[in-house]
Amino acid sequence: MFPSRFRYEAPHSLDEAIGLLRDGGDYVKVLAGGQSLVPMMKLRFASPELLVDINGIPGLSYVQAAPDGALHVGALARHADLEWSRLLADTQPTMAAAAPLVADPLVRNRGTLVGSLCHADPQGDWASVMLALGGSVVAQGPSGRRTIPVRSFVTGPFENVLEHDEIAVEAIVPAAAGRRAGGYLKLERRVGDFATCGVAVALELAGTGVVTRAGIALTGVGGSTIDAADAWAALVGQPLDAGAIGRAADAAAAIAQPRTDHRGSAAYKRHMVRTFTARLLGGCTTPASAERAA
Amino acid sequence: MTAVYDDLGDEPASDIPVRRIRFAINGKKKIAEIEPRLLLSHLIRRGVGLTGTHMGCDTTNCGACTVLVDGRPIKSCTMLAVQADGREIQTVEGLSGRSELHPLQEGFREEHGLQCGFCTPGMMMAAKGLLDRNLNPTEEDVRWALSGNLCRCTGYQNIVKSVLWAAEKMRAEGATDD
Question: What's the number of CA atoms in the CB half-sphere (13 Å) around residue B127?
């Protein structure tokens, strides 16, 4: 299969890329990892007139901590870079748990976290993770940069708030005030399939064991990534005991909007959201809390 | 090289975008003039003429088209050929020497790691990506590394054994070299 015909540009700077987006016509797409865009172009779901390949722009592959403790992930950092990152393994349990579960190992060598956020697939793993962590996307356009919280970045399935001449240049996870705990669990029929359901949990805990910040988000059980606000709000200011975990898990299951399909019944998916939420929160009570799905 | 396409448009030939790229494949330097919508798998098979890289699903699911780009295993049906500009590609044809099989190829023979053989080049290249990084993998590591490659014949057991066989042989060769 071939995509339909398009013009191709491979700029060497962000300014050049933004100029191409500004002047490139009505239907221009940015190409980073291409692991969603290229298949969609081959199937003719997407037929851009101009493709702006940012892979030749230097300095966008970083995964690094800023002096203030925030984590910055550049637009060309691949899923595999995150999977093998020592920094993530040591400081970001939710991200470290999710990275090996994105797609499959071959796709992870090309695809990017920032591209995944932009693609805004309701089944995307990183959207749940970044929502739970309170992360944001930095967009650069002709008049400079702006920072957009992930919760307001996606406006619907495959839709985001980027202007036509803006490029998402990095994602940011704010610094933690307390001890980070959390994880990501995904149920999938086989590696690389869309999630039957997924749950991201990101907590910060005080030395006393009281939850100081919480985020819980759900993948694949609604028309978009779900912010399980009732679930995480029930945890903040509380010690993480069995009662709190049970209440949060019930709230997460209640806010899910699963549909019965070939991956399972709505009731089953709702049950799995409750199970995963409880399992992840249970893991947060001990310091080594990153979990990988069986 | 020359790539010949089915002509589905009616625009003048001068309006058809063509890019010139340089790349290396299995150590040999190449120049190609291609349309940007050509996939890397097409460049390898139809342009260079190396048909060991197989096209299975053509939808980023099966991994039969796996090659190494700058050492990393990727699905060549899901990367544009123009993106190979300046890159080093390794295909299954680059594994063996003039007369000797690569330990991975030997392993697949010794452990019966293939039946129909269609997925085998992709399996080997994904496995090479693993062994280049980790010459002492566990069975779990091998299964993890091959989880993007589908096989409909073997049930995977012998493929995993083949890769472990190759790893053991390569470790032994490395020890001899020292």
Answer: 33
Q: pTM for this one?
A: 0.94
Above 90 in pLDDT, residue A41?
Answer: yes
Q: Counting Cβ atoms within 10 Å, is residue A141 exposed (0-12), middle (13-18) or buried (19+)?
A: middle
A-B Cβ pairs (cutoff 8 Å, strict): 90
CB contact burial A219-242 (16+ within 10 A = b; e otherwise): bbbeebbbbbbebbebbeebebee
Residue A130: how many other CB atoms lie within 10 Å: 33
Contacts with A63 (C-beta within 8 Å, 6 or more apart), sequence order: A71, A72, A73, A74, A77, A81, A82, A85, A87, A88
- For the stretch A180-217, pLDDT in tens is 999 999 999 999 888 999 999 999 999 899 999 999 99
- Does B152 touch chain A if contact means CB atoms closer than 8 Å? no
DSSP run (H or E) holding A251: helix A242-255
Nearest to B36 among A1, A8, A103 (CB): A8
Tokens of B94: 């680059």
Taking the CA of residue B176 and the nearest CA in chain A, the distance in Å comes to 30
Task: Report how far residue A271's alpha carbon sits from residue A108's, in angstroms, rounded to the nearest whole number.
Answer: 29
Residue A175 CB partners (closer than 8 Å, separation 6+): A68, A69, A70
Query: How deeply is A262 buried, as exposed, middle or buried, from its count of CB atoms within 10 A (0-12, 13-18, 19+)?
Result: exposed
Residue matched to tokens 């993998």:
B137
The mean pLDDT value of chain A amounts to 95
CA within 13 Å, CB half, A225? 30
**Cα–Cα dist A222/A215, whole Å:** 18
As a whole number of angstroms, the distance between CA B4 and CA A290 comes to 51
Q: Which of B70, B28, B75, B72 is nearest to B55 (CA)?
A: B75
Cβ of residue B123 closer than 8 Å to a chain A Cβ: no
Single out the residue of A223, A215, A268, A277 nearest to residue A245, CA to CA: A277
Q: Contact at 8 Å (CB) between A151 and A130? A: no
Q: Nearest chain B Cα to A47, which residue?
A: B37
CA gap A207, A145 in Å, rounded: 37
Dump pLDDT digits (tens) for B134-147.
999 999 999 999 99
Please, which residues have CB within 8 angstroms of residue B71's CB and are 6 or more apart in sequence?
A: B88, B90, B129, B132
Backbone Cα Rg of chain A: 19
Q: In the 8-state DSSP scheme, what is residue A210?
A: B
Q: Is B143 on the interface with A (CB under 8 A)?
A: no
CA dist., res. A107 & res. B21, Å (int): 24
Angle at A178 between CA A172 and CA A184, to 5 degrees: 60
